[in-house]
């Protein structure tokens, strides 16, 4: 979301001010104090996602003109869950911790949330520039249902195509 919420410090401030921590699962490293966060997976459920904030909040953070541009970019990324569906907003694992099963752990936890909430499926989008993430999703039972090529958005958003994937959830 760097293109939409950058520069980085402004994006961090916006996210911190509009974070819904109850819409994420986290992975922590070991340690007597709970350790540090090494992975996060956000999701949308019940009308709320990991990061909130409406158009007015974006304009308040970035100003009228720059805010309007960002509202446009964020609208391009918007995904609304269908009934009985949990939509993953994203997943991130500390680069130093990748390859250790954290992504799979986060996906299993998101699936547990979906089951507990009575969802019948999980939906996510993966950008074509991230084949490693797509492979992770496929290993965990997600199947591609649609590919959307958007080369005209590459300069605006940093990617030129998105694959939508679904995973059925046993209730």
From TrEMBL:
SUPFAM superfamilies named among the record's database cross-references: Acyl-CoA N-acyltransferases (Nat)
Domain of life: Bacteria
The entry's keywords: Acyltransferase, Transferase
Gene3D superfamilies tied to this protein: 3.40.630.30
PANTHER family (UniProt xref): ACETYLTRANSFERASE, N-ACETYLTRANSFERASE DOMAIN-CONTAINING PROTEIN
UniProt key word Acyltransferase: yes
Stretches assigned to the N-acetyltransferase domain: 1-170
Keyword Acyltransferase on entry: yes
InterPro entries: Acyl_CoA_acyltransferase, GNAT_dom, YpeA/RimI_acetyltransf
Protein name: GNAT family N-acetyltransferase
Native source species: Streptomyces caledonius
CDD domains, sorted: NAT_SF
């Amino acid at each position: 979301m760097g293109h939409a919420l950058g520069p980085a410090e402004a994006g961090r401030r916006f996210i911190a001010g509009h974070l819904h921590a109850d819409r994420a699962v986290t992975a922590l490293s070991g340690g007597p104090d709970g350790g540090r966060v090494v992975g996060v997976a956000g999701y949308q459920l019940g009308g709320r996602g990991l990061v909130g904030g409406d158009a007015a909040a974006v304009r308040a953070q970035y100003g009228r003109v720059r805010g309007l541009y960002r509202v446009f970019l964020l609208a391009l990324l918007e995904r609304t869950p269908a009934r009985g569906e949990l939509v993953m907003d994203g997943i991130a694992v500390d680069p130093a911790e990748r390859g250790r099963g954290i992504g799979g752990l986060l996906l299993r936890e998101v699936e547990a949330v979906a089951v507990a909430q009575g969802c019948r499926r999980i939906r996510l989008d993966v950008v074509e520039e991230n084949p490693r993430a797509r492979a992770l999703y496929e290993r965990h039972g997600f199947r591609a249902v649609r590919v959307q090529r958007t080369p005209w958005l590459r300069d605006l958003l940093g990617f030129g195509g998105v694959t939508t994937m679904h995973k059925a959830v046993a209730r």
